[in-house]
Amino acid sequence: MKRSLMLYLVILIVLMNIYTYMFLSKEVAFEQERYTKVTTKLKDSLKSVANKVADANYFSLEKNENAQNYFDSGSGEKTIQYEKLIPVVTEKLLDYNSNPKGNPYTGQDQIGANKFIINKVRILNHRWIIADYSDGEIWGEVLLKYFVNDDETIAFEVNQSLLYQK
Description:
Radius of gyration: 32 Å
Keywords: Membrane, Transmembrane, Transmembrane helix
Order of helices and strands: HHHEEEE
Organism: Flavobacterium xylosi
Oligomer: single chain
Protein name: Hydrolase
Structural class: alpha+beta
Number of helices: 3
Shape: elongated
Strand order of the largest sheet: 1-2-3-4
């Protein structure tokens, strides 16, 4: 009786060990497969986001080599580095937000109690800027021309402005 009980216990322990080994080996294979799938999906998502960012930056001075070359005189006398120009132009344009009547380069006169100020600026190339503006209630966009003068001052000109309906 004692022998048969020991035999049953040994068989039971062996079966439990086989079951545990099979379960854990399948679990490892499952986790590795899941890791591979997730990694592949994340790489695809990353590529997709990188492509979208590249498409979004297509119209920008940072990516437009022809527009960058505009600021290179070729003779080496006067070269404007576009990397330094972008924040300067943006800052100069946003400085006009402090005007009591609003930023004059929104192309809009003050309508209500609040003045129009420029919120976001995107320099498209060596000549154009697109900007988003609002007075807190009404939103619009403006297409500007900008010029870098010989004395390195920046001049702006409203090309076209539009207001969105409420």
